[in-house]
Design goal:
alpha+beta; 4-stranded antiparallel β-sheet; 28 strands
Length: 851
Amino acid sequence: MHRPQPRIAILDALLEAANLGLAEGGRDRASAVFEKLYAIPAPDNIRRAAYRGLMASADQGRALELIKTGILSDDVPIRTAALEMAREVEGPEAAQVLHGALEKVEPPIQVALIEALRQRGHTAAATVLTAMAKSPEAEVRVAALGALGDLGDDKAAAVLLEAAGSADEAEKRAARQALLVLRHGDITRALISYLKSGQPAAQAEAARALAGRGDGEAVADLMVVINKGSDPARKAAFLTLGQLADAAQIASLVRLVVEAGDETTRTQARDALRTALHRLHGWGIHIDAEPIVAGLAAGNSQTCAALLQAAAALSDARVRDVLRSSLKDADKSLRDAAVLALCETGDPELLPDLLGLANEAADPGLRIQAVRGYIRLATERGSAELADAQRIEALRKILPTTTRPEEKWLMLSGLAKLPDPVALELALMMLKDASTRAEAAQAVIEIAAGLKASRPGPARDGLRKILAVALEPSQRESAEKVLAEVNALAGLPPTPAFSRYKLDGAFRSEGVAVADFDRDGRLDIATGNILYLGPDWRPQSMLGSPKEYNPEGYSEEFLCFAEELDGDGWMDLVVVGFPGAKTRWLRNPGHPGEPWREYTAVEKTGNESPDWTDVDNDGHKELLFVSEEGTALARPGVDPTKLWSIHVIAGTRDPRPGHGLGTGDINGDGRDDIVCPEGFWEAPAAPASGPWVFHKVKLGFEAPAQMVVLDVDADGDADVVSSGAHRYGLWWYEQTREGWRPHEIDKAISQLHALHVADINNDGLPDFVTGKRFWAHREGDDGIEDPAVVCWFELSQEGGRPSWIRHDIDSDSGVGLHFQIADLDGDGLLDIVTSNKKGVNVFLQKKAAGR
């Protein structure tokens, strides 16, 4: 039997021994071992390492011969080793070997050799690289062009300029980059030469290269080209001049504008001057405005128009005065130029003029330019003359004039850089507009981050408002992060966070129950066919083989409730099935591992939101559901193994809701009423026997999930919270003297098919936990493929008005029709358990430091 592993181990050992011997000076003996190892059949990595060792153990002449042989070889491991060693062997002779082999190998090897020559700095290869820049192989051309930047001289400029105009993007990028780093020879002189007399494409690339190189020495030559060159050369020279001129050369640029003999030259000179002024101003370099002022005083209207537009970046009282007077000049062309200059100004003193133009301009296009110019000037950090308070006040003044979303986005981008409560207030105002909500939310997050240490109160309030409306997961995550930092700095409790544990990836049920089913003092989880025993939630079948359902269909376990039904002290399980199917209960055998026995409780259970609750407050829970006769309560009898008794509380003409049920004291008489989307049944004095009167009011949109009754607004009466089980939305219905008034809480998540209440953050106020029921109907529902979110809504009550902040817990699990909130691990914090088409998941609330 062939056993290759010991042989490979022996070869590795020989290789290691040879390398050790070489390191200790035993060159000849090591060389002999290396030569044998690379020559025998062996894995590629061993032959490659052996050939490297052979080259390393040879004298320089022999090593160079081995490198050359290896490079020209068809043996891939040998060739690879030779290429690696070629980069490492010192001396010009090694470069000559690479150089000599360059035209004898295939294109992929040529690319590798070019890179090796480049790394060695072998400038003698420039000639052959210039030839290879014309290779028919694109990869070789790109490699050669790139290497010419390091190895070529001014003679390479021609081929690089030609390639820089190539239609091939890779070649163009390589050539342009090479032109920027080319350093051997008189590069400036070569580029100027092509700027003067090259083809238009080469002239443009030469101008680009000169500007990119920042070659200030070229300015004098550019002036010569402008005075004596051809029209294409002059155009390219003007473009480059704007990128290279320094403050001392501004007077020369002004003179070009003043002395321009035609409109084309004047425009080109104006643009060069404007580019230079903007660049120098942006760098914080002082610019003497005297040449511009003199040009404005001596020039005709065309010259003044050009100089005003070019000098827009300057903040100078003399230029400002000329601009203001030009706005009223009789010459329309000068007026128009002054208006354009005003819209581009960098002078904060002209903010009132811009505001006036924005408010008074008859031309909508001009008004838009003025608004944008104003916002830019008020927000750009280059305007050092403006304090943050002045910027904010300026933005407040323009806000009524901004009508386009793009203008408000620009304003928000500026506000985001101003860590000030007033800036925060302005950004929050724009949350109300859907077209600016995302940008406003981002601005609030950035402003709050800047305020977290100095003004934690406004920062926290702003972030909470963001979390109430933000839809983008990334924005919500950013807001939560900054809020946690604010809370930590202010010594406030952190926002609860959760860790997810996936107990089972299979679709087992859409309801789940939590109880100590095995009486070991720890909570367990039941899905109707599998029991997960705490504390490590080991799965255990309840009814023979566990069921796994197809996520594109439905389970037979829609809701699960833990209850001790038969008086034996062991928690049993009530399982509500598919709407219209039976409700059954599973009897705990009292011995872990034994099968549970199944009994039918109700033969047909309607509605997708039944509840197991003590409706009549007699200390015993009933199943609230919709029977064939209407809304009803089912109770186990003395013998719970028999069918349960059913008490129909609805009248024959009352609604029979398919979704949405809940209980609570609606009318304040101390008895729990029953609510549905169409209204509520008023509990009689004797709930078990008396008639339940139905009151028709709208308490839910179509198909809600569980309906929660509580005093949301702290005004002393009950309100109702309901969700959209098959659409988007979560609402609360306010009970008022005039009737019930709906309020939207959130509309970002679809298919909120389970809704439960708990005080998640221990602040004494009830919060809501909900989430998306993934693939509720598989087809036909709103947002069916949206992320399967689990979240909780934090309630605040300020001034008697409720508000909620949504905190996302997870985005790839969701809820079913029913889930559980309980302290699973006994740390005093509420955890969440879900079971649905994404599997069975536990979300343990993290214990914050110090708690």
